[in-house]
Amino acid sequence: SQLDAPDLKNSRKEDGDLDSQVTSRGLQAILPPAQSRSYFKSVSVTKVMAPDGTVEERRTVRDSQGHEETVVTRSSAPDGGLPRGSGDPAPFSAGPEGDLSDTS
């Protein structure tokens, strides 16, 4: 039982014959009880392209302790901000599943 388990934090550090202790008392009597741990991280990325071609990306990261961080990155258009004509193809980007989706 746990009541018979040694207090490992306050015990002296010394070598001992663990094999015989495990054989006679079982492993649960020697090891401290396992503590369950859970951790997650959520990442949300949003990209918006303005009519002048500038791109704003918002990356929000939230962890299991409730900490949240948002980083906003703005970049100018790679083609110098030339407006697209109505006959120009719309830009595409890889979505979270790797599929191509229209970003316009």
TrEMBL record:
Biased composition (Basic and acidic residues): 1-15, 55-71
InterPro entries membership: HAX-1
Region feature (Disordered): 1-30, 54-104
Gene Ontology biological process terms in this record: negative regulation of apoptotic process; regulation of actin filament polymerization
GO cellular component: actin cytoskeleton; apical plasma membrane; clathrin-coated vesicle; mitochondrion; sarcoplasmic reticulum
Name listed for the protein in its UniProt record: Uncharacterized protein
